[in-house]
Specification:
Blueprint lengths: L5 E5 L3 H14 L4 E5 L2 H9 L6 E4 L10 H9 L5 E5 L4 H9 L4 E4 L4 H12 L14 H11 L3 H11 L4 H8 L3 H15 L4 H9 L5 H12 L1
Parallel strand pairs: 1-2, 1-3, 3-4, 4-5
Helix pairs in contact: 3-7, 7-9, 7-10, 8-9
């Protein structure tokens, strides 16, 4: 008897999570689904070590900065395919998702058939992206390479540095000693080639969605 699929859905809209759960049930009856609504809950779910077969990720959850959750998942669980499901379907957003390691991208406006095709393709070890994509960005490629040098723990520390947290606050959030956080920060700055926490924070902000893309997402949700 085959083990049922286990999927992690990360999206802050309860109704959309329910819609995804229903769609997945049609694709793979009997599957197991875990849901999270923000970045902290995502980290907690991943930390539990559940053997997920697929992660479905929105780009605008509370606590996330654009592609930061995607970069986190790719660093923490490189074997786990990540399918982005977003209402920001601008060509550059799709291209950036691919460059930062997503296995697929499905616009929230896409029909159920497209979602089914994407899920099946990704579970089979392939890729699934809409045809409209912008040109490859060398800046994003370099950023992805730099971030790939970090360990999962260093990436967690970096994201909190970008949020403006002090070492003492990061230590509390991650259950580490303040000295351990200091060591991680030093290693992060060295690996990224940054001379200060401010430089590192600016680097992380490059993961943010383009302003045009964010505006487009708000328009679609509102419409």
């Amino acid at each position: 008897m085959s083990v049922p699929l286990r999927v992690l859905i990360a999206d802050d809209h309860p109704m959309f999570r329910a819609a995804l759960r229903h769609a997945l049930g049609e694709i793979a009856p009997g599957l197991s689904v875990d849901e999270v609504a923000n970045r902290s809950a995502l980290e907690a779910a991943v930390a539990e070590g559940a053997p997920y077969d697929l992660a479905m990720l929105d780009l605008t959850m509370p606590g996330a900065m654009g592609f930061s959750s995607l970069v986190y998942l790719r660093g923490e669980r490189p074997e786990l395919p990540v399918l982005i499901v977003s209402s920001d379907d601008h060509a550059r957003t799709i291209r950036r998702a691919q460059q930062f390691g997503a296995a697929g991208f499905v616009p929230k406006s896409a029909p159920a058939e497209s979602l089914a095709q994407a899920v099946q393709a990704v579970l089979d070890g392939g890729l699934w992206f809409p045809p409209q994509q912008a040109e490859r960005s060398e800046d994003d490629a370099r950023l992805a390479e730099r971030l790939a040098q970090l360990t999962p723990q260093q990436l967690r520390v970096l994201m909190r540095v970008a949020d403006g947290l002090l070492n003492k606050q990061i230590a509390y959030e991650l259950s580490l000693s303040e000295n351990t956080v200091k060591i991680h920060v030093t290693a992060v700055l060295r690996k990224l080639g940054c001379h200060s926490r401010t430089q590192a924070a600016v680097l992380v902000k490059a993961l943010a969605l383009d302003s045009a893309g964010v505006a487009g997402e708000e328009d679609e949700v509102g419409g």
